[in-house]
Amino acid sequence: MAGCRTFNVFVLTPRNHFQISMSTDQVKKEVEEVTELMQHNINLAMARGDRLDDLQANSENLNAEAKKFSRTAGEVRKHFWWQDMKLKLIIGLVVLVVVGVAVYTVLDKTGNLPTNK
Question: What is the spatial distance between Cα 18 and Cα 65, in angstroms, rounded to a whole number?
Fold first, then answer.
């Protein structure tokens, strides 16, 4: 083979060393395969980085929405607490007036109503 050199490549194995003869073309082919594999891995890492950036942005948006929801929920809770308190006060006043009228009526019929003379 003209222009084709043979290189001796040593590979370490668990037991001993052995020698493998490889031609220049074989070495070039392996280098190209490794280069393609590394380019593929770099592309995957870049795509993963893009997905991580998207995930980061989504996480920040979700956090902002959660804070907004929490604030709105607090406002709604306060609103309904006041509404409930107003209703309880009105019912309490109505009951107080009804009890007052009933006591007045009973005292008036029995003649025990204090009079100012």
Answer: 64
Condensed to tens digits (0 to 9), the pLDDT of residues 20-68 reads 566 888 888 888 999 999 999 988 888 888 888 899 999 999 999 999 9
Is residue 14 within 8 A of residue 33, CB to CB? The reply is: no
Structure tokens at 54: 């998207």
Residue whose C-alpha is closest to residue 43's, from 32, 54, 35:
35
* CB 24, CB 32: distance < 8 Å: no
Task: Assess contact for 34 and 27: CB atoms under 8 A.
Answer: no
- The Cα-based distances of 95 to 72, 84, 98, 101, 102 in angstroms read 35, 16, 5, 10, 10
Instruction: Indicate the burial class of 55 (C-beta count within 10 angstroms; 0-12, 13-18, 19 or more).
Output: exposed
pTM check: above 0.70: no
Which residues, other chains included, contact 104 with Cβ-Cβ below 8 Å and sequence gap of 6+?
113
